[in-house]
Each structure stands twice: as C-alpha cells, then as structure tokens.
Design goal:
single chain; about 220 residues; alpha/beta; Rossmann fold; four-stranded antiparallel β-sheet; 10 strands; globular; binds adenosine-5'-triphosphate
Length: about 220
C-alpha cells in the first residue's frame, strides 16, 4: 500500500552565508495508514522543523513531501494541508477567548472544512469525556483536558495525517496516557500519526521509532 506520508530528500537550512546551518540534510520518511511513528533525537536536532515540513507549516530548501499522493508545495499546499493534516502542539494552542467546545468547532468553520465536521466535533467532545468541561474557557481547564480538546480540533476534518509535537510534554503521567491512547486510537482508524517526543512512555507505544541525527533519520 502507498504510504500516506512520503518525504524524500528533505533539506532545511537556517541562516545565511557563514551563519548558515543545515538542520535537515536529506530526510526520507514513509508513514503508512494506521501507523504511529515516533521521532526522537537530542534537543535542537530538528525534530520540530521536520514536523513542520511534513505538515506544510514551513517549506524545505530541497526535497518533497506528498500527503496521500498530493504534493505539499506550490499553489495547492494550503488546500492540501487544511484538508489532509491535523496538528497538535505541546502548548495546546487553544484560542483563549473561546470555550473548549468552540475551539473544537472552530476547525469545522474554516474554509475547506469537510462535510459533517460540526457533528464530528460534537461527537468527539462526547467520546473524549469532555461534555462537562467543554463549556469552560481554556484557562479553566486542566492541561490534559486542553490537550484532548486540541487533539479533537486537529481531527475534526478527518485528516489522513496527524502530526503531534511533544503532545504529552506538558502533561502528568495519567493525562499523558489518555492523550496517547487517543493518538493510538486515531492511528487505528487508518490515519498516519507522527509524534515528536522525548518520552519513553510514548516510544514504547509507537509502531516504529526513528532517530534524527546529524540531519538524517535512522531506525532507532
Ligand atoms: N526559525 C528559525 N530560525 C533559525 N534557526 C532556527 C529556527 N527554528 C529553529 N531553528 C534552529 O534549528 C535547530 C532545530 O530546531 P528544532 O526546533 O527543529 O529542534 P528540536 O529537535 O525540535 O528541538 P527540541 O527537542 O529542543 O524541541 C535548533 O538549533 C534551532 O535553534
């Protein structure tokens, strides 16, 4: 089966001239539907940079990313990203003025939202056990509740790919386990899930662990 995420020869440089640093130096990665891949590596090695390239939040200096067979560059990049990719960040990034439920619904209102997104948003809030708290503002919710809402928001449009950057990094063990269960479940639904992490509890539950070292990926 063709991979959902297919990255080839990704190169990323930061800075110019003498200050230029090559962070990614030819990264290849395939992630299949249903697979949860953990990306590890020392601090500053470029894990977040890689995740941003895989999700089209940043552009590479060379190489290509395909999501479900569509190139993630050029004119259609935004449309492909909105339709195909969900993102979860360590710091949740919920909109502080909106309630939890409104944050999840927000993604259902953006241009390119998939049919049924509103219903999916409501169903996700219930499935995640958040009905009681979803009326609160983010600052009134626990970290674990906020992150579950952030994951719900990321999958409201039923993306083929879910990218998570240290999603359990700000959570205690119990809340982290709930979020990890959720990511596993979402991979089980046939998504490709890529998680950047430092945590053994996460790598232990990944289907595959890859290490980023000196700008390249290797099997851990
Ligand atoms: N916009 C930018 N401009 C210049 N340098 C950057 C930029 N973003 C990241 N870097 C540098 O690129 C390197 C890789 O950063 P990145 O955030 O991808 O690493 P990371 O592996 O995710 O780190 P950590 O595990 O600490 O979060 C770091 O040295 C960082 O300082």
């Amino acid at each position: 089966m063709d991979p959902v995420v297919r990255a080839r020869g990704l190169v990323k440089d930061y800075g110019r001239g003498r200050a230029a640093r090559r962070i990614l130096d030819g990264v290849d990665l395939d992630v299949a539907a249903g697979e949860l891949v953990a990306v590890v590596g020392r601090s500053g090695c470029g894990k977040s940079t890689l995740l941003h390239l895989l999700g089209g939040l940043d552009t590479s200096d060379a190489g290509t990313v395909e999501i479900a067979g569509e190139r993630l560059d050029g004119r259609r990049a935004d449309a492909v990203r909105r339709r195909r990719v969900g993102f979860v960040f360590q710091a949740f990034h919920l909109v502080p003025e909106l309630t939890g439920a409104e944050n999840v619904l927000l993604a259902a209102r953006l241009p390119g939202a998939r049919p049924g997104a509103r219903e999916r948003a409501r169903a996700l809030v219930t499935r995640l056990g958040l009905d009681e708290v979803a009326g609160g503002l983010p600052h009134e919710l626990s970290g674990g509740e906020q992150q579950r809402l952030a994951v719900a928001r990321a999958v409201v449009n039923d993306p083929a790919v879910l990218l998570a950057d240290e999603p359990t990094g700000n959570l205690d063990e119990a809340s982290g386990a709930v979020v990890l269960d959720l990511l596993r479940e979402l991979a089980g639904d046939g998504r490709a899930v890529v998680v950047v992490t430092h945590e053994r509890t996460v790598t232990a539950r990944a289907d595959r662990v890859v290490t980023l070292r000196e700008g390249r990926l290797a099997a851990a």
